[in-house]
């Protein structure tokens, strides 16, 4: 056989090196959908993580909405009790390690982390082990995929809202998380190992790119600076105002009237909307409200009326410091998302102010670099706080429709 002689004069392939992926949106390797039925939920699963056939299976959860919502509430309560309300035994004066400081490097947090892992695994079992044979297939495929490596996960539902990042899956079937000698592994938490977001059935006109205007980024901060003075006094809101004001065109709103005027304006231009204020929840009727610096309550009906024309700037919404932060999504977050917000980052439990300040500063410092994707920032922060500072609180932030959101040149 005769070989053909050849000479390369121009090599546009750069010696056949791989071409970088410049797409704005990454493929989801795991896609889950929860659709509410009269007697439970239909769960569908597909994606490249499930092998050559892509999964394409479905099953039914034999638990109603109230049972699953109770499970979600229990998970949040166990995280709150294990971290925010945790008091070091035998220490006087009383010390709450996860509240008094955000950096716990060198501390032993294994007992607390194990309790959180067990809570996350219990909710996983509630969601995926209480159903028909089809749900068992979904569960088996999901376990096999999650244990093989990192994945890009979208969970879609208009009815069921779960802190997906707090779910925990052991890396193998050797033993139970409830065994006395079980050793928790941070990679078992969904929010530590994977890129995870909650999405909805329809997102018309969604674009992950935030065009950076010639004048730079526009940030709106809706805050109560009095939060900093709550006992124990902890600077949180004011330092963040200074941090963002040095990096973007920043508007600070501290009253109900200022927020109403801004959201009702056809010229609303915020690229990023930050809430650092108080929230209140009436335990009798579960009515939730926001309170800025003027002390005036803002309820969800008022917010909806202000958003009648939508948010033309398609902002990223970030929720930070303040009481009642965990109640923000069900009362306010989904209204903002349905009326134009590009995505939402919000905590599942109320945050200690020292941690809230450090988290928000690091999040914005990373995200304000053009091209940096919000999902990567949220996951990287969860890892950094746990690996470097022994603090699991980075996992409590949930991302709603925002894995690939990033700043982009127009």
Structure description:
This protein has a six-stranded mixed sheet, with helices on both faces. It has a five-stranded mixed sheet with strand order 3-2-1-4-5. The protein has a three-stranded antiparallel sheet with strand order 10-11-12. It is globular. The model has no long low-confidence stretch (mean pLDDT 90). It is 31% helix and 19% strand. It has helices at 65-84, 97-100, 110-128, 133-146, 190-193, 237-245, 256-264, 300-306, 328-338, 353-367, 374-389, and strands at 30-37, 40-46, 57-61, 152-156, 195-199, 209-212, 218-223, 249-253, 272-276, 278-281, 288-291, 297-299, 316-319, 343-347, 397-400, 406-409. The protein is an alpha/beta fold and 410 residues long.
Tag the structure with descriptive keywords.
6-stranded mixed β-sheet, 19% strand, single chain, alpha/beta, 31% helix, globular, 410 residues, 2 domains, 16 strands, 11 helices
**pLDDT averaged residue by residue:** 90
Sequence of secondary-structure elements: EEEHHHHEHEEEHEHEEEEHEHEHHEE
Q: Under the CATH scheme, which architecture of the largest domain would be assigned?
A: 3-Layer(aba) Sandwich
Query: Given the helix and strand composition, which structural class is it?
Result: alpha/beta
Query: Rg, please?
Result: 23 Å
Please summarize the sheet with the most strands: 6 strands, mixed
Strand content: 15-25%
- Give the CA-based shape: globular
């Amino acid at each position: 056989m005769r070989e053909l002689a050849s000479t390369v004069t121009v090599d546009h392939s750069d010696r056949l090196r791989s071409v970088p992926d410049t797409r704005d949106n990454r493929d989801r390797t795991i896609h889950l959908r929860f659709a509410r039925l009269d007697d439970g939920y239909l769960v569908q699963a597909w994606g490249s993580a499930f092998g050559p056939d892509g999964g394409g299976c479905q099953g039914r959860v034999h638990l109603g909405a109230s049972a699953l919502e109770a499970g979600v509430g229990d998970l949040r309560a166990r995280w709150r009790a294990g971290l925010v309300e945790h008091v070091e035994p035998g220490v006087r004066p009383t010390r709450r390690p996860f509240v008094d400081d955000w950096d716990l490097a060198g501390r032993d947090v294994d007992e607390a982390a194990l309790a959180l892992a067990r809570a996350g695994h219990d909710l996983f079992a509630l969601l995926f082990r209480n159903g028909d044979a089809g749900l068992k297939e979904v569960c088996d495929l999901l376990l096999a995929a999650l244990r093989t490596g990192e994945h890009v996960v979208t969970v879609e539902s208009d009815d069921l809202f779960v802190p997906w990042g707090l779910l925990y899956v052991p890396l193998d079937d050797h033993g139970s998380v409830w065994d006395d000698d079980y050793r928790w592994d941070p990679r078992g938490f969904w929010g530590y190992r994977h890129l995870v977001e909650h999405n909805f059935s329809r997102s018309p006109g969604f674009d992950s790119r935030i065009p950076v205007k010639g004048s730079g980024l526009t940030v709106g901060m809706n805050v109560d600076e009095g939060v900093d003075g709550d006992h124990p006094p902890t600077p949180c809101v004011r330092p963040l105002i200074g941090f963002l004001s040095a990096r973007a065109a920043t508007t600070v709103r501290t009253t109900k009237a200022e927020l109403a005027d801004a959201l009702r304006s056809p010229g609303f231009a915020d690229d990023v909307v930050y809430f650092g204020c108080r929230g209140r929840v009436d335990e009798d009727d579960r009515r939730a409200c926001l309170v800025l610096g003027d002390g005036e309550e803002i309820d969800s009906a008022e917010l909806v009326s202000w958003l009648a024309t939508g948010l033309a700037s398609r902002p990223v919404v970030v929720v930070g410091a303040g009481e009642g932060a965990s109640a923000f999504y069900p009362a306010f977050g989904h209204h903002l998302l349905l009326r134009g917000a590009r995505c939402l980052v919000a905590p599942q439990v109320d945050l200690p102010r020292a941690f809230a300040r450090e988290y928000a500063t690091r999040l914005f410092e990373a995200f304000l670099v053009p091209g940096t994707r919000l999902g990567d920032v949220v996951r990287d922060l969860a890892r950094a706080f746990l690996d470097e500072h022994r603090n699991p609180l980075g996992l409590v932030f949930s991302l709603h429709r925002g894995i690939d959101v990033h700043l982009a040149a127009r």
